[in-house]
From TrEMBL:
Ranges where the HTH gntR-type domain occurs: 7-75
GO MF annotations, alphabetized: DNA binding; DNA-binding transcription factor activity
InterPro entries: GntR_C, TF_FadR/GntR_C, Tscrpt_reg_HTH_GntR, WH-like_DNA-bd_sf, WH_DNA-bd_sf
Name this protein carries in UniProt: Transcriptional regulator, GntR family
Keywords: DNA-binding, Transcription, Transcription regulation
């Protein structure tokens, strides 16, 4: 069995998994072995296996179904999707985020568990604390929004969000750097409003607040 020999480990592990899928080891729709099985086969730890799976999910090869496992969704990488992501402009990225996160906020308000609400609150507190360094702020912001998408209990929405994350991160850094401000009290209040709507299980309000927040980020014109 081939093993990972050089960094980055997650990318190498993803490439090896993809080779095995292309080679017919798992058919379309088949369930992959668990992390504890795949890790030794690839020569990496469980966290690296998770990252490799996340990468392949973002490329449309794998799909994670909560409580069921990881399944083969495609027998090859959706190259056009990856190319579209890498070249998308800020407006396209934000419009895609609106499509994903507005619905996710509504679902999270209905489906979130007490533990997930605590995780959202922790992410909100971390985001509020990151007001001095731009990249740390963007990372905390994306972590907050991801916690809400995760609480929606829709693995496809979460896979889409994760596939967008690298491009979203760079787009937000570029946008906020041009605006020369971030982490204002108004911005914090907008995120607090999303959080409280989710906490109160008000799907309509959560959706509306998420939409309004993201719309304010769209470049004019």
């Amino acid at each position: 069995m081939a093993q990972v020999r050089r960094t980055p480990l997650a990318e190498q592990a993803a490439d090896l998994l993809l080779e095995r899928i292309r080679g017919g080891e798992w058919a379309l729709g088949a369930k992959l072995p668990g992390e504890s099985t795949l890790g030794p086969q690839l020569g990496v730890g469980r966290s690296t296996v998770r990252e490799a799976i996340r990468r392949l999910a973002g490329q449309g090869v794998l799909a994670t179904r909560q409580g069921a496992g990881v399944f083969v969704a495609s027998l090859d990488v959706l190259e056009d999707w990856r190319t579209s992501l890498s070249t998308a402009d800020i407006t396209s990225v934000l419009e895609a985020r609106i499509a994903i996160e507005v619905e996710a906020a509504a679902l999270a308000a209905v489906r979130r568990s007490p533990a997930e609400l605590r995780a959202i609150r922790r992410a909100a507190a971390e985001r509020a604390a990151q007001r001095s360094e731009l990249e740390a702020h963007v990372d905390a912001d994306l972590a907050f929004h991801r916690s809400i998408v995760a609480a929606a209990h829709n693995p496809l929405l979460l896979d889409l969000f994760d596939s967008f994350t690298p491009r979203s991160r760079q787009a937000m850094i570029d946008l906020l750097r041009r605006r020369a401000e971030f982490g204002s009290d108004t911005d914090h209040a907008a995120h607090r409003a999303i959080l409280e709507a989710v906490a109160e299980r008000d799907g309509a309000a959560a959706s509306a607040h998420a939409r309004q927040h993201l719309i304010t980020l769209l470049p004019e014109g």
